[in-house]
Design a protein that fits this description.
This protein is 59% helix and 0% strand. It has helices at 11-22, 27-34, 38-47, 49-55, 58-75, 79-89, 115-120. Helix 5 packs across helix 6 (79-89).
Length: 122
């Protein structure tokens, strides 16, 4: 869950940020509600590092929303949602469709290239 942050932004920037949270990052809709032009939002991102830092947190709010919706579907016993959640969170218990190989901790593999084959094609 996105942690609760104290918003230090003021005026239209604050209103735009709060509206973006409510609209899950929908820029056009938020700009219309806030009564600013979309380009103003992008100018703020480019010129105001503090505003950009707040905007960069919008993704966390989106994920919170999606997770809450998924949990609701799981509570309703929606099979697709249950399987999806198990494939994401239940990998260690075998809920995977493909085998994953950890190449970092495996022994190195020596690969021999037959250069003679390449030269015979010429």
């Amino acid at each position: 869950m996105a942690k609760k942050i104290k918003i230090k932004l003021k005026g239209k920037k604050r209103l735009m940020f709060e509206t973006l949270i409510r609209t899950l990052g929908h820029i056009t809709k938020s700009a219309e509600i806030t009564n600013i032009d979309r380009t103003t939002h992008y100018d703020w991102i480019e010129k105001d590092p503090e505003y950009k830092a707040y905007i960069d947190t919008i993704g966390d709010y989106q994920v919170d929303f999606y997770e809450a919706a998924l949990h609701g579907l799981i509570k309703e016993k929606n099979p697709t949602s249950i399987i999806f959640a198990l494939k994401c969170k239940g990998k260690k218990r075998g809920w995977v469709e493909r085998q994953e190989i950890d190449l970092v901790n495996e022994k190195p593999i020596n690969i021999v290239i037959n250069k003679q084959y390449e030269e015979s094609k010429k």
